[in-house]
Design a protein that fits this description.
The chain is mainly alpha-helical. Among the domains are: 140 residues, no CATH class; 39 residues, no CATH class. 65% of the residues lie in helices and 2% in strands. The protein has a 3-stranded mixed sheet with strand order 1-3-2, with no helix packed on it.
């Protein structure tokens, strides 16, 4: 989720809004906010109802549909057919789940390459299970397939596997080592040579015994030790480490470039959607540059919080970003941000006391000073930068969202 916070960073004026003023703009259809989004508009959908809830009008069912179709046939038979078809189509969709559930399902399928991608994943899972079963049963065919498909990897893991066997089961490791050693010694005639050496010693043929011994050492045991040392060491280990380090650095650079490219387009689209939503709610009122940027930044933070609260968003985000598909990544982040745009804007504007006609400074006009010379009282929660924390407890101020008081640097007191 830390990467997601970097990608979604539309909380500053990018120039689209005309120097801080919130202006109405044309919003692409896929990121449009408003009544057609998940904001409670009357779309005839059931997505705002609790999961499993019945339609608002429980009385309307097949019997009522049949009656309506009969009346429509008297007016327009074709219209009656279209109405009946539409009703049963919607009813069939409703049985599959809510709009939100179906959208999430479609999104998940698309993230994994559509139906073809899911089919490929299923085949890989099946192959993986077969491999696991082969390992569990100790099927030699697993080794054959491994050696044929990945010969270099197979060779590299033989010695570490043998060492691991010694820690896992010392007794079986001894048996396995004996089997391998016996095959090796038989291949090079060591057992026969040792027999000849023993016979020469028994017969007192010291010259023959010395010759046989020297041949065993020079032709078998010394090369055997040399090969064992060579197999245990990797002369290219340093080069491999450097290559791995370079690959990792290149991977980080590619990831950074990809995230930067996605971030740039996401911020433009989300900023446009944000400005449009602000313009709709503020109804033509303007925010000064400082307050406009502050509000946008807080809206972005609110959207991030809403996305983070979604249980499956982080996993879906990681999947789409790791795919490397720029267009898919942009659409995913923008769509999810836009679904939460209206709620985030409403929350921030309410917190800033900007829903009641304030002039964009974040504070309402000062009331006349009461009699007795006491300082004027300002309505509305002030910005943090305006608060005098020498007179106001900071912890109390930050914890007072709905109601509270604070002394301002101007000497006035704010109440909300």
């Amino acid at each position: 989720m830390a990467d997601e916070l970097e990608v979604l960073d539309a909380g500053i004026d990018t120039g689209d809004s005309g120097g801080g003023d919130v202006t109405e703009e044309t919003i692409p259809q896929d990121i449009e906010s408003g009544d057609s989004a998940d904001t409670g508009g009357d779309t005839g959908d059931t997505q705002d109802q609790p999961d499993g809830a019945a339609p608002a009008d429980k009385r309307y069912g097949p019997k009522e549909v049949k009656a309506d179709v009969a009346r429509l046939k008297e007016i327009d038979p074709n219209l009656a057919k279209r109405f009946e078809r539409a009703y049963w189509k919607v009813a069939g969709v409703d049985k599959l789940g809510t709009t939100a559930e179906l959208t999430a399902l479609k999104e998940a399928v698309e993230l994994h390459g559509g139906v073809e991608g899911l089919t490929s994943m299923a085949e890989e899972v099946q192959a993986g299970r077969a491999l696991e079963q082969g390992f569990e049963k100790g099927d030699p065919k697993v080794i054959d397939g491994w050696a044929n498909d990945y010969p270099d990897g197979f060779k590299k893991l033989i010695i570490p596997a043998f060492d691991r066997l010694e820690r896992l089961d010392p007794q079986f490791h001894e048996q396995a080592a004996s089997t391998v050693s016996t095959k090796f010694l038989e291949k090079y005639g060591v057992f026969d040579a040792v027999g000849q050496l023993g016979a020469a010693l028994r017969d007192g043929k010291t010259e023959d015994a010395a010759r046989l011994y020297n041949e065993l050492v020079s032709k078998v045991f010394q090369p055997m030790r040399s090969l064992a040392t060579k197999a245990a060491s990797d002369p290219l280990a340093s080069d491999r480490e450097q290559l791995d380090a370079k690959r990792e650095e290149l991977s980080k650079q590619e990831k950074s470039m990809f995230y930067g490219s996605v971030r740039s387009e996401v911020n433009q689209q989300v900023s446009r959607a944000m400005n449009a939503e602000l313009a709709k709610i503020l109804r033509g009122r303007k925010l000064d540059a400082e307050m406009g940027n502050r509000v946008r930044s807080e809206i972005t933070s609110e959207i991030k919080g809403l996305l983070t609260a979604q249980a499956d968003y982080a996993k879906r985000y990681e999947t789409v970003m790791s795919s490397g598909d720029r267009d898919k990544a942009i659409k995913f982040v923008v769509d999810n941000a836009s679904r939460n745009m209206s709620k985030a804007v409403q929350t921030v504007l309410k917190y800033r006391n900007l829903l009641n006609g304030n002039n964009g400074t974040g504070k309402a006009a000062a009331k006349p000073a009461p009699k007795g010379g006491s300082p004027a009282v300002i309505a509305g929660r002030p910005a943090i930068s305006d608060v005098d924390f020498g007179k106001t407890d900071k912890a109390t101020f930050l914890g007072s969202r709905q109601h509270g008081t604070a002394w301002l640097k101007s000497g006035k007191q704010a109440k909300w």
